[in-house]
Amino acid sequence: MDGMVVSTWFCRVDCVTTASASLEAHRDSVRAIAHNFGVSDREISLAPRQGQVNLTVFLGNDLVLRLPRKQRFEDRLSKEAELIPFVLDRGIPTARLVSFDPGHTVADITYIVLERLHGQMINDIPSPADGGSRLYGSLFEILSSLHSIRRDSEPQIRSVETAEFAYEVLDELTSSGEIGGSQAAWLRRWFDHLESQGARDSEPVLLHGDVMPSNLIMNESGDVTAIIDWGSACWGEAARDLASFRTSTLPVVVDTYRAATASHQAAAGGVGALEASVLWYQLIFALLKLLGRQSTSETRNWSAPREARLIEIVRFLTTNVPDRWKSLLPED
Fold first, then answer.
1. Distance (Å, rounded) from C-alpha 203 to C-alpha 266?
2. Which residue ranges does the record assign to the Aminoglycoside phosphotransferase domain (predicted)?
3. What is the per-residue pLDDT for 51?
4. How many CB atoms lie within 10 A of CB 140?
5. Which are the contacts of 331, defined by CB distance < 8 A and separation ≥ 6?
């Protein structure tokens, strides 16, 4: 590889990720994989958006290479390799699987190569009032089809696990000093109240698991044309895929999703139950964030700051929201 190209490429890497040392270590692997697909060194470029799990590299205009940042993330690539052909067969638009090499036949690392999809990308999902109506409608058509795939009818998907959320998070928060015992008891009563309203009571369906702006491909009209990155896919309640939306948009999100899933309402949950389920997940995700590290990323989304989700929930439930949402508050 030309020295100037190497320098420029890895300089760009340093600018967008803190994993420059590991990227430098994989330089030869990236080159070997690229050459295996007939891609020259000069056609290698780092994707402008990088996640915490995988390093993403463009191989020319047609291919995307993804390498796990840590060995324990290889299982996610295995999941994607199994799941992508499955969802494509069922009409879910996503990037086509080109190659998966867990045996290190080309390079000394497990990797996956996908079709490179071209389209618009966004930093945040706008509200319908800000022009997001087409986005919501098209995205929920995709999720509606995805959520119609039920666990009890698809036992052959071996790599997709069932998402489990236990109340041990309250014990962890208490022992770490993030909350007190009385606060944990009140939160438990809130979870119990949400479950009495129908949360956590719907049949497990196939979830994408990470419905974020960075995983959506859009056309110029604002329609979502594909959803990518299936490493977090799991079986669970459909409401979990809605919990990544900004809390203030939940009434519109739930109403639009409910309309999109009207033909198979059982997957989404009935009126009231879906609201309770979405809020249940928003609350558990907010509490889990308190156990994580503070985010310092320049490109972080609305929920990246550790306390952001809790504050958004408080703000949402203390403003002019529909009564069916305020009824989800605990009585004491």
1. 8
2. 49-248
3. 79
4. 22
5. 193
Residue 18's pLDDT is what? 45
Residue with tokens 């638009």: 93
pLDDT tens digits for 214-243?
899 999 888 999 999 999 999 999 999 999
Burial (CB count within 10 angstroms: exposed 0-12, middle 13-18, buried 19+), residue 269: buried
pTM of the model: 0.86
- The pLDDT of residue 83: 96
Distance between CA atoms of 199 and 90, rounded to whole angstroms? 28
Helix (H, G, I), strand (E, B) or coil at 243: coil
Pick left, alpha or beta for residue 272 (phi over 0 → left; psi -120 to 50 → alpha; otherwise beta).
Answer: left
Are 205 and 235 a contacting pair, CB within 8 Å? yes
Contacts of 55 (CB under 8 A, 6+ apart): 17, 19, 22, 23, 26, 66, 67, 68, 69
In whole angstroms, what is the distance from residue 305 CA to residue 294 CA? 6
List the domains of the chain with CATH numbers.
3-115 (3.30.200.20), 128-326 (3.90.1200.10)
Segments in the chain below pLDDT 70 = 1-24, 128-129, 131, 155, 164-166, 263-271, 293-301, 332
**b/e burial code for range 304-329 (CB count within 10 A of at least 16 → b):** eebebbbebbeebeeeeeeeebeebe
What pLDDT score does 223 carry? 92
User: Which residue is listed with tokens 């967008």?
Assistant: 16
- Burial profile 77-101: b = 16 or more Cβ within 10 angstroms, e = fewer: bbbbbbbbebbeeeebbbbebbbbb
Give pLDDT, residue 201: 83
